[in-house]
Structure formats: structure tokens, C-alpha cells
Amino acid sequence: MLDRKLVQEVLAAALSKGGDFAEIYVEDRLNTSIDMMKGKIESSLSGRDYGVGIRIFNGLNSVYTYTNQSDRLTLLKMAQNASMAVGGMPQNLAVDLTIASPHDKHPIRIRPEQIPKSDKINLMRLGSEAATHYDSRINQVVVRYLDYTQNVLIANSEGRFVEDSRTRTRYTVSTVAGKNGKMQTGFIGKGAGKGFELYDEIDVAHIGREAARVACTMLDAKPSPSGKFPVVIENKFGGVIFHEACGHGLEATSVAKGNSVFAGKLGEKIASEVVNAVDDGTIPNEWGSMNIDDEGTPTKRNVLIENGILKGYMVDKLNARRMNTDITGSARRQSYKYAPTSRMTNTYILNGHSKFEDMIQSVEKGIYAKYLGGGSVNTATGEFNFAVQEAYLIENGTITSPVKGATLIGTGLDILKKIEMVGDNFESGEGMCGSVSGSIPAGLGQPALKVSEITVGGREEN
């Protein structure tokens, strides 16, 4: 992507006016994105993004700059300007780079860029038609198809020089059901760090029908009650509650500055003893997996919580300096336009020993959250608020009526301590996660969980 001698020159220039560490990040990305609404293509974009980012540290200070030009003069001038900006003592040194070849844990069988766009559109039509024909009350269906291949080169003044390729593919269906002026939505998707072989493994028609089923079910639902109730959270995308309410608070991005409720709690009991959680970027072909992170460090399986005890954080290079700790292969960024920072890869609550049926039977009156929707969290306080896309009442140990408008409200520390049962039915899901280094693919998941009590917010029927 860039000649090694040029990279050495640029890194030397990046330390020529100041700084004690320099890094160069090169990205060459091929994208395909197609949107279909009501069976017709609304947009179809294919393109290439290319750029170079240079980052320099001086102690705990950093400077980041980027360009979409990669000629020698542009890169050397940019590196020297950044070096002056970060301050410190000038260094005249020749950077000796050693090429590293990471083991590829995520092989791609069918390159998506080799598949005709017409084949991708045919798959979109299958999902669209399945959702549209599910029920006459479905009045809008949006199908989105995405694939990209991101090639990166990362080198730094410590001598690392490594290249990697990441391919991801995703398919989602959004639906709207309407009746008597009322509307409800449904959303289902599937993505992986795979090529077009993903479509040998998933049923796009089922995705469409499931998205339609959720919208229609909620259309007929009664308003959710409000109050404090036991809640059973379903597996798979139910893991978003741990991702948001707890995962972000375990990233060094917030921990290093003391802006997290989990700061300074290593070795302390922060959760029920039935809770075990990891962040693992090594799982083959998972949505958030990579061979190396965006600082060139091999990804790994990081234990976050073990039997309720806080065991570790997710840490990037700059925050490792601030915290005087080791890096964990957790540095991520959306593109060359962003400096990396500590982010989640695939963040999971691990399997327990409880049966889903036993969780439901143990609840006299509560809520079953089948699909969670969007939410927000304040990492400094751990306070969260999540919409429940599909919810049901639990009455006398039985799942009964669907309810709409339910929200789960609480704090990460509180919910971790109130997890009473962890199921044995783990499944993974995926989503896009936003933070200071942009929007990135993040895997999540869990088995079903029973929380002894969560504040549930409802809403009145319109």
C-alpha cells in the first residue's frame, strides 16, 4: 500500500521536530451499499475510500492528522507539521521496521466485490417480498445490503509494520405496520466478518418475515405497565444492554480519565457471581473480529468480569500510558479520518447454567424483553435507558400479552448486581457502535438473563 522505505521516512519526519512515538495508518477500502424501499432500489453506492493518518505522542499528549494524498512530499510535510504541533525534543533517528505477518483467523470464501450487483439485489427482493406479504398491515419495508473490504497498513516508530484485510457483510430489514392511524416498527438483521458465503448460512426471507412479525405483534399490543419489575432479557441482541450499560464504561477511553463508574475497581466485586463477561476480537469471522487492532496489535480474548469480579479493561496505547498498564488489542477507528481509541470488538456475557423456562416460571409478575431497541448511557454515572422493541408480560410464570412502549431504566452497576440467573442458550448478535473514534462494527451477545428488578417505563395509549 505504501513502500516500506517511504513509511520509514515519514515516521522519522514525524519525530524530527518533537514527540516520542509516531504511527502511520493507511486505509484502502471498497464499499457497496444498497437501499431498497417497497421493492424498489432507492440508492446504490459503490466506491473506494483511500487515505493516510499520522499520529504522534509526546508523553500523554497526542496529535492526529490525515490526508487522502499519499505522495512523498505531502506525507513528509504533514508529518513534520504534526511533529512541531505535539512539542517535545526533536529526534534524529532512522526507524527500523520489521514486517509482521498476522495469522489470518477470518478467511473469506467468496469475495463480495466479485458478485454481480444483480445477485445482491435479488437477495434484497426476497427479504422485501417476504416482509410485505407477511400481513396486509405492513405498509413499508426497507431492506439494506452492505459489504466492504478494508485493507490497512499500520507502522510505528517502535518498529512495527503490519498489513491486514477485513471483509464484512450485512443484511437488514426494517418494517412499519399500521392500523387505525397507529404504527409500529420491526427491525431484524444479520452481519458477519464474512464474504458472500454469509448468504449460504442465513435465510433472508426469514429475516423479512421476522421483522414484519415484530411490527404486527407490537401493533396489537397494549401499553406497557410502569414500575419496578423482574425482567427476563432474551439472548443474542439482548447483549446490547451489557454493551451499552457496562461495556463502554470498561473502555480505557473513559476509565483513564476517571469518567467511568468502573474506574479504580479492578479486583472488586461489581456483579452477581453468576456473571462472566469477555471482549474477544479473535472469534473467527465474527462481526467485530480482526486479526490486528487499528494500532497493529494482535487482538485477543480479554476477560472483563469473572464470577462477578472486575478483571480487566479494554486499553489502547495512549490510555495505557495514562493508566500505566498494558495494551489489550482494543484500539479501533471508523477510518483513516479518526485517531484510534479503546473500543469493544465482540463483547459477551458467557453461558451460565439456568434454563430459559425456569427463568420465566420464577417470575410472578414481570416483563419478558424479547428484542431490545436503541438506547443511551452516561458512562460517568452508568445510567442507561433502553427501548424494548418487542416485549411481553410475564404473569404467574407464563409469558402472556405483548406490550408496547416499554423502556428499561437503571444503572450498569445496579443491573450487574441484580442478575439472578444466566441461561445456557448463548447467541451472538451485531450492531454499529458510535464513540469518539467513529462508528464501528461491534459484536455482542449473551444467553437469556433474569434481572431481579429493573425500572420499566411505559407509555399511555394514544
Compose a concise summary of this entry.
The chain has 462 residues and is of the alpha+beta class.
- Mind telling me the C-alpha Rg? 24 Å
Largest β sheet strand count, sense and barrel closure: 7 strands, mixed
**Uncertain segments of ≥5 residues (pLDDT<50)?**
none
What spatial form do the alpha-carbon principal axes imply? globular
Mean pLDDT across every amino acid position: 95
Count of folded domains: 2
What's the assembly state of these chains? single chain
Strand content: 35-45%
First-last Cα distance:
57 Å
Number of helices: 9
Percentage of residues assigned to helices: 10-25%
Number of strands: 23
Which structural class should the secondary elements be placed in?
Answer: alpha+beta
Domain Metalloprotease TldD/E C-terminal: 226-458
Domain Metalloprotease TldD/E N-terminal: 22-83
Family: Belongs to the peptidase U62 family.
Organism: Fusibacter tunisiensis
